[in-house]
Amino acid sequence: MRIGILLSVLFLSLSSYGQLKAIHNQADYPFLLHLPADSILKNNPPVLIFLHGRSLSGNNLEMVKKYGIIHEIEKGREIPAIVLAPQVPAGKSWEPEKVLSVLRFAQEHFQTDTNRVYVTGMSLGAYGTLDFAGEYPEIVTAAVALCGGGNTRNGCNLSTIPVWIQHGNRDSAVPISESEKMVRSIRACNGGENLKYTVVPGANHGDLERVFRTDELYDWLFQFSKDPQK
């Protein structure tokens, strides 16, 4: 209890400056934590989870800054959410229950909007995104998966929440068929009424990293809430 209180005080003291904090031994994955401005933090902010690709796996959280949401934050992008960026060990795949432990840490230490939990990832992180959202559709509000795939058994669960799948049609690392099978599994359940699918013409695997630089990604995610009044 005392450790938790001390951690909360430490994090709150950093929030005014939007500093990035490396968190170890508090969840099943180590992770980077970024807090929004005080004015947002005090008003039950949403949580945004970023799952990286295989090239950033390991045991050094500095690697997670190389591309994606944390990279964009360090370049000056302001995101009105608590951002969590865990790191998966080298050679491992994302495990939904371990990602959940990272989310639970944030929810236990801060007052967050549990109706607004978002997840996005690229490559291996896209697989992790669809696995996490597919296992916990009652928790995840919306998900964006870039140039990845997933487990088709989660198709019906994923059909119940907004999901945006993107893939380049010249991806030589992860074939577009991996996304297509997930699209088919989702559409088979409800016609894909909550699904957005984008094929990026001429794009190879790494090209989709640019999506993290666009306002469209964040605007699309943050428009959704599980609260029907919002």
Please name the defining characteristics of this protein:
alpha/beta, Rossmann fold, 230 residues, eight-stranded mixed beta sheet, single chain
Q: What features would you describe in this structure?
A:
With 230 residues, the protein is α/β, with parallel strands linked by helices. The protein has one domain (2-222): 3-Layer(aba) Sandwich (Rossmann fold). It has eight helices and eight strands, in the order αββαβαβαβαβαβαβα. It has helices at 2-15, 38-41, 69-74, 96-109, 124-135, 155-158, 177-190, 215-222, and strands spanning 20-23, 31-34, 47-51, 82-86, 117-122, 142-146, 163-168, 195-200. It has an eight-stranded mixed sheet with strand order 1-2-4-3-5-6-7-8, with helices on both faces. It is globular, with a radius of gyration of 17 Å. The chain starts with a helix and ends in an 8-residue tail after the last helix.
Quick description:
The protein is of the alpha/beta class. The protein is 33% helix and 18% strand.
- CATH-defined fold name: Rossmann fold
The radius of gyration computed from the alpha-carbon positions, rounded to a whole number of angstroms, is 17 Å
Percent of residues in β-strands: 15-25%
Structural class: alpha/beta
By DSSP, the count of extended strands is: 8
How many domains make up the coordinates? 1
The CATH level-2 architecture is identified as 3-Layer(aba) Sandwich
Q: Could you list the spans in which at least 5 consecutive residues all have pLDDT below 50?
A: 1-7, 9-17
Strand order of the largest sheet: 1-2-4-3-5-6-7-8
Q: Could you give the distance between the termini?
A: 34 Å
> In CATH, what is the homologous superfamily?
Alpha/Beta hydrolase fold, catalytic domain
Number of helices, where a helix is a run of at least 4 consecutive DSSP H or I residues: 8
Helix content: 25-40%
Can you give the mean pLDDT?
A: 93
Q: Report the biggest beta sheet as strand number plus sense, adding barrel if it closes.
A: 8 strands, mixed
